[in-house]
Design a protein that fits this description.
The protein is mainly beta. Helices cover 4% and strands 49% of the residues. It has three domains: 12-152, Immunoglobulin-like, CATH 2.60.40; 161-245, Sandwich (Immunoglobulin-like); 252-366, Immunoglobulin-like (Sandwich), CATH 2.60.40. It has helices at 7-15, 71-74; strands spanning 21-25, 29-31, 35-43, 51-57, 63-69, 79-86, 89-95, 105-114, 121-133, 142-145, 147-152, 161-168, 182-187, 195-199, 202-203, 205-210, 213-217, 227-234, 237-245, 252-253, 262-263, 266-267, 285-291, 306-310, 313-315, 317-322, 330-336, 344-353, 356-357, 362-366. Strand 18 and strand 19 (237-245) form a beta hairpin. The chain is flat and about 60 Å long.
Length: 367
C-alpha cells in the first residue's frame, strides 16, 4: 500500500487532542490574622471563551474572601460579579455583552483574610459547577484545579496589609497613591472600631470601614513625594505599616456598579445616568466622576492637565474640578462626545491627568 508523502505526519498531528481551557488557583501561604493574595489564572489554550462561571467552596469560619478583576477581564471588556450561594460557597461570573474572547492571564485576585484564631493547616479552595461558553454561546470544556491556603504559625509581625491591597477606589487597581485620591485598602482585620490611617504622619480622611476594608481620602500633603509610610492604628496601637509609592496623579473613572469595570459613573447632558438604554448623543456634554487627579488649586481644580478620549477620539473638556456635593478627592469632568466618536453601548473611555492615563475597562454608551 502506498502513502502520499506527509500523510502519516498529518494524521498523527490531527490525532492529538486540543488542550482544553484551564482555570488555575494558586496555593499561597499565610499566618493567622494575615492577608493572603490568591491569583486565579485563565489559559484559553486552543479554545475561545467569552464567558464563564464557577463556584469556590471554602471555610468561611476561618477565611473571608474578596475579589478584584485582573487584566484578563479588564482588557476583554468583561465584568466580574460574585455572590454567596451558601455559608461556605461563593459564585463567580465573568461575562459581558460583547462577544469577544477572554484573554490569558489573571482573571481576578482573591483577597483572603485569615481569621486571627485560624488553626495551622491547609484550607482548601475547591472549584465546582464550572461552566463556560464561546462567543457563539456554545459550551466549552473548561478544566479547573483546586487551590489551598497553607496557614502557618506566626513568627513575628502579621502581614495584615499588602501593596496589592492598596487600590484606587474607582478602578480597584493597585498602584501609586496620588494626593487627595480616594483609596480602598483591603487587608485582614484593618477596619476595626477606633481605626486611624496616616501617610507619613498626616491623617487620611476615613470614608468607610469594615473588618477587612477601609476607604479613605489620601492627604494632599503627599504632593511632591515619591513614597510614603502608610500606618494603620487602632486605639493608637499600630495594626499595619507599609511603604507605598506616591505619584502626582493616578486617575481612574468610577464605574456604575463599583467593580471598576463596565459602564462608567457618567451623566448625560440631561442629568440622567448614561447607560446602554440611555446613550449620549454625539455632540452632547457628559459628566464623568473620577479620582486620583492629584493636587488642586484654591478652586479645587487639578494643577495637571485633564484630557478625555472616547472611542479613541479626543473629547473637548469644558470643566475639570471638584464635584459639588461630593467629598474632596472626587473629580468631575464635563466633556463633549466628539462627532467622530464611534457609536455603541460599550464605547471605551479613557481619562488622562498630566501624562498618566487611567486603566482600561470603563465604557460610555453613545448613539
Amino acid at each position: 500500500m502506498s502513502h502520499r508523502p506527509g500523510s502519516f505526519f498529518v494524521a498523527l498531528v490531527c490525532a492529538v487532542p486540543a488542550l482544553a481551557a484551564q482555570l488555575t488557583v494558586a496555593n499561597p501561604a499565610g499566618t493567622a490574622g494575615a492577608s493572603v493574595v490568591v491569583p486565579i489564572v485563565f489559559a484559553a489554550q486552543s479554545d475561545s471563551v467569552a464567558a464563564l462561571q464557577f463556584d469556590v467552596a471554602y471555610d468561611s469560619a476561618s477565611l473571608s474572601l474578596g475579589a478584584i478583576a485582573g487584566d484578563a477581564v479588564r482588557t476583554s471588556a468583561k465584568t466580574l460579579s460574585l455572590a454567596d450561594i451558601g455559608p461556605n460557597q461563593r459564585r463567580f461570573l465573568i461575562a459581558g455583552l460583547n462577544g469577544g474572547p477572554l484573554g490569558d492571564g489573571v482573571l481576578f485576585t482573591l483577597f483572603a483574610s485569615v481569621g486571627p484564631s485560624a488553626a495551622s493547616g491547609s484550607y482548601s479552595l475547591r472549584i465546582s459547577n464550572v461552566m463556560a461558553v464561546d462567543p457563539d454561546g456554545q459550551a466549552v470544556n473548561l478544566t479547573a484545579s483546586d487551590g489551598s491556603i497553607a496557614v502557618q504559625p506566626a513568627s513575628g509581625s502579621v502581614e495584615r496589609l499588602r501593596l496589592t491591597g492598596v487600590l484606587n477606589a474607582a478602578s480597584l487597581v493597585p498602584g501609586p497613591v496620588a494626593p487627595g485620591e480616594i483609596v480602598t485598602l483591603l487587608g485582614a482585620g484593618i477596619g476595626l472600631p477606633g481605626v486611624g490611617v496616616t501617610f507619613d504622619g498626616a491623617p487620611a480622611s476615613l470614608l468607610y470601614t469594615a473588618p477587612n476594608q477601609i476607604n479613605l481620602a489620601a492627604p494632599y500633603s503627599l504632593t511632591g513625594k515619591t513614597a510614603a509610610q502608610l500606618r494603620i492604628t487602632q486605639a493608637s496601637q499600630p495594626v499595619a505599616d507599609l511603604a507605598v509609592p506616591v505619584a502626582d496623579a493616578s486617575p481612574a473613572v468610577f464605574s456604575l456598579d463599583g467593580s471598576g469595570l463596565g459602564p462608567g459613573a457618567i451623566l448625560n447632558q440631561d442629568a440622567n445616568v448614561n447607560s446602554p438604554l440611555n446613550p449620549a448623543p454625539r455632540g452632547s456634554i457628559v459628566s464623568l466622576f473620577a479620582t486620583g487627579a492629584g493636587q488642586t488649586d484654591a478652586a479645587s481644580k487639578p494643577l495637571l492637565a485633564v484630557s478625555v478620549r472616547i472611542g479613541g477620539v479626543d473629547a473637548p473638556v469644558f470643566y475639570a474640578g471638584g464635584a459639588p456635593g461630593l467629598v474632596s478627592g472626587v473629580l468631575q469632568v464635563n466633556c463633549m462626545v466628539p462627532a467622530a466618536a464611534p457609536t455603541g453601548i460599550f464605547v471605551p473611555l479613557t481619562l488622562t491627568v498630566g501624562t498618566t492615563a487611567g486603566p482600561a475597562g470603563i465604557t460610555l454608551a453613545v448613539n
